[in-house]
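P.,

For your records, the input lines for the assembly:
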Amino acid sequence: MPSPQPPRPGSTGPSSGGPVGRRPLALAGEASLRRRLVARDEQALVELIEVASPWLLGITHAMLSDADEAEEVVLEAFASAWDRVGSLGEEHDALLPWLLRIARNRAIDRLRRRRRWRLKLARADSYGELPPDRVRESEVDEAARPGWHVHESVHAALRALPAEQREVVRLAYFQGLTHSEIARQLGIPMGTVKTRLRLAFDKLRTALAPIRDWVL
Amino acid sequence: MTTHDWYVENRAAYVARSLEPGEERTFRDHLVRCDDCSREVARVERELAWLPMGVPPVAPPPGLARRLAGEILDRPSRWRRRLPLAAAAAVALAAGGAALAARSDRGALRALLSARETQLAALEDTLSVLRRANTVLQTQISMNGHQQGGLLIFQDAVSHRWCVIVHGLPPAPSGSMYQFWFITESGMVRSVEVDADTRRPAFMTLPMPGVAAPVMGAALTMEPVVNRSGEPQGVTLAHVVF
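Structure tokens returned:
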């Protein structure tokens, strides 16, 4: 199983305030972007796609194991967001988690609709454990990637889970398998799957709580 | 363990979508009726909102943002090319109103809302081109030697689209149609058929033609319906060159 990506030197968690160069948008920046999207500013749509698409492609690539399909899902997610952004209340979550949720749900729908489980599982094996260390250094300037500090925090939270809990989270959350499919895959009782998932999600909810208020 | 305890225990599993398909449907139905679970599921969603970012980003291919934005923005344009805006709005409202009168349930309301959102998105999209237009051209349309309405073109350099308005034209005679053309350095490029009606202007939001040659102007002709070739064969009613 591939080793997880180590935190970069000098990396910090979300409570650090974000070092210069990581370019997280401030809350005011996101509010401005959202206002422009609601006003149908097409340049704002381009900006949103530029910032968010690497993360949406990350999760959809990992789930679908197919670059073209991943891109289709990302297009659907942005199209849905463009259509619905005007109906979001001010109290709504930040834009990026919202987009990630849309993309992930659509990826799961595709996986289930097309019943590609066997093929997908075979491909998924080649991707190894989450977070997969698939991004070549030359492809991504991590320090300059908005949101990289959030990735590091989530990555650390996942790595802090016991291996057996991390494995069920990988299969359930990042591969879209149901309880019974995970039980079959791992050869363990379904009750054990549910227990491990419940314990893992309880820990993750606590660990990720500090970054709830961060945006992009 | 009560029935409700099952929902309480599986809130995170529902958010993760690890429930079996039948269980997921049951849970979704329950959320409609149970405010407590609905609120708690929303809370779990917020708490796990960043979890997808545990996966490293993937560098998008060059030009992806512009391409995706173009595809998203082009959707209402394609829709509007088939139906002039006013007619589309009337159809959407009539369909939604009829559905609501026939069955005033949530499904009908959702359909009406969806139709209104589509209509609003189309209007906003048209307005965005009009508001951003950096060049506006207008010319008269002549039929049989008489002025008969006009042609207005709003050019938006940001999205590389035109909003074209044709007004004052009667419906095309039987066997004929009004055809809009781009004039490019390499020749005429067929664009859309114009559904004219003297009672209301026809609005069209058009992307630039997919040819390498620069666009130099536009023309409106009356063509025989049978002409589907790439060259105009009928009478030129209006043309404008920049």
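Two observations worth noting. The longest helix of chain B spans residues 106-132. Residues 77-86 of chain B have pLDDT under 50 and may be disordered.

Regards
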